Automatic annotation (TrEMBL):
Keywords from the named record: Cell membrane, Disulfide bond, Glycoprotein, Hydrolase, Membrane, Metal-binding, Metalloprotease, Protease, Zinc
A molecular function GO annotation: metalloaminopeptidase activity
Names of required cofactors: Zn(2+)
Short name of any one Pfam family annotated for the protein: ERAP1_C
Lineage of producing organism: Eukaryota, Metazoa, Spiralia, Lophotrochozoa, Mollusca
Name the record gives this protein: ERAP1-like C-terminal domain-containing protein
InterPro entries for the chain: ERAP1-like_C_dom (IPR024571), Peptidase_M1_aminopeptidases (IPR050344)
Residue ranges occupied by any ERAP1-like C-terminal domain in the UniProt entry: 85-404
Compartments, as annotated in UniProt: Cell membrane
Stated family: Belongs to the peptidase M1 family.
GO cellular component: cytoplasm; extracellular space; plasma membrane
Top-level taxon: Eukaryota
GO biological process, one term: proteolysis
Length: 429
């Protein structure tokens, strides 16, 4: 199960580079269900590859691999000092994360800001993804990783500073994924992230960012953060569609973002039109996009109506209904509504999904995914005590409590750091 993280440190005896492996877990305090056991005690044969500032590699061959088969190993490379750096897992040759000492992280980030193309697009995305993955570690108590056992969130955020110059998809996809999680954690807080949306959208309007998938991802995040220019452009596209529903003028790569933005920023008229298009759509992909967009509305009464419709096969197809709970739960306005509906209509939901279907697990996980307060944790525990029989959802509910505990710790440790960072991101529009 899982995969390893390799820590790169200085061997104090001979000033060489030492690599150490551990099992990677975001939450070290999570209870292992012991479903699977391994005679290898979570030690991997890791094909470690690396390059340094003085030995840059664009391609990796078998000859470049240093096999890490034990817990730790000293490799034949001097440990970098000053502005020099070492980068592990070149071109992501292996399936593992890499962590470094603070000085090396500083040197890598400086390189990104100076000339990011020294690293491949794959490795730029990897640096962002590894940094945020390591910053999210919870309950890290293993001695050898404790010095920088949980990478500071401030370091992870600094890996994004160079993005004004980034033109490739992979690093942007990594950044957007990490910012999406941060956004889900902060939606119910006092932090104003609108400035971040403004900055993201300005990056995305770079003339060289032409791929539809980059524009779609950037537009989605920027509009969700409240970027007015983004919202106006997407609502205009949707208005064209409403005025002539026989011809959809929206690029296929932008449909999900346009639909959701129009429903979120609009009124009942936009929601009703979207629902009508959902009912008449023939293509499965289009039907799915439209249904997901229905949960984007900011009107609580419409969200409650949609949740009720999800249990009526005449309104929402049975194979689609569980997605409604997940999508409403992801909506900041719908989080509490979905949770209240889930508890109030538990018997109906259990009757429909509790006989071994994966859908019940998905509903439980989706409705509670962004829970991050002590009140929500207590509500989960109370519900669990009063509903001992959850059928196929029992394990998912236990995992939900663990995830909520992890989210609470994440908020406690990172809220102020992210707030301070966001306050430095304002760009005049």
């Amino acid at each position: 199960m899982n995969y390893p993280v390799v820590k790169v440190t200085k061997d104090q005896i001979n000033n060489k580079t030492k690599i150490t492996q551990r099992r990677f877990l975001k939450n070290r305090e999570a209870k292992d269900p012991m479903t699977y056991t391994s005679p290898f005690d979570y030690k991997w044969h890791i094909p470690f590859t690396f390059m340094t500032k003085t030995s840059i590699k664009s391609n990796i061959t078998d000859a470049d691999v240093v096999w890490l088969t034990e817990e730790e190993k000293v490799i034949n490379s001097s440990y970098p000092t000053g502005n020099n750096w070492i980068l592990g897992n070149v071109q992501q040759y292996g399936v593992y994360r890499v962590n470094y000492e603070c000085e090396n992280w500083d040197a890598l980030i400086k390189q990104l800001n100076t000339d990011h193309k020294v690293f491949s697009a794959i490795n730029r995305g990897q640096l962002i993804n590894d940094a945020f993955g390591l910053a999210a570690l919870q309950g890290m108590k293993i001695r050898i990783f404790t010095e920088a056992g949980q990478l500071k969130m401030s370091v992870a955020l600094r890996t994004l500073d160079y993005l004004t110059a980034e033109e490739e998809y992979i690093p942007w996809r990594a950044a957007i994924a990490e910012l999406g999680y941060i956004s889900s954690m902060l939606k119910d807080t006092e932090i104003q992230a609108i400035c971040l949306g403004q900055q993201i959208y300005m990056y995305g309007k770079n003339e060289k960012c032409r791929q539809w998938y980059v524009r779609s991802d950037i537009a989605s995040l920027a509009c969700s953060y409240g970027n007015t220019q983004c919202i106006e452009e997407l609502r205009r596209l949707f208005k064209e569609y409403m005025d002539n529903d026989t011809r959809n003028p929206i690029d296929s790569g932008l449909k999900s973002t346009v639909y959701c933005t129009a429903v979120r920023e609009g009124r009942e008229t936009e929601w009703t039109f979207t629902y009508r298009m959902y009912k008449s759509a023939k293509a499965e992909a289009e039907k799915s996009r439209l249904l997901t967009s229905l949960a984007c509305t900011q009107q609580p009464w419409i969200l409650n109506k949609l949740l009720a419709m999800a249990l009526d096969d005449r309104e929402v197809r049975q194979q689609d209904a569980y997605k409604v709970f997940i999508d409403v739960g992801r909506n900041p306005v719908g989080r509490t509504l979905a949770w209240d509906f889930f508890r109030g209509r538990w018997n109906d939901i259990f009757e429909k999904y509790g006989s071994g279907s994966f859908s019940l697990n998905d509903i439980i996980s989706g409705v509670t995914a962004s829970f991050n307060t002590e009140l929500q944790l207590q509500q989960l525990r109370d519900f669990g005590k009063s509903h001992a029989n959850m059928g196929s959802g029992t394990r998912a509910f236990a995992q939900t409590i663990e995830n909520t505990l992890a989210n609470i710790r994440w908020m406690r440790e990172n809220y102020v750091t992210i707030e301070n960072w966001l306050n430095t991101q304002t760009i005049p529009i």
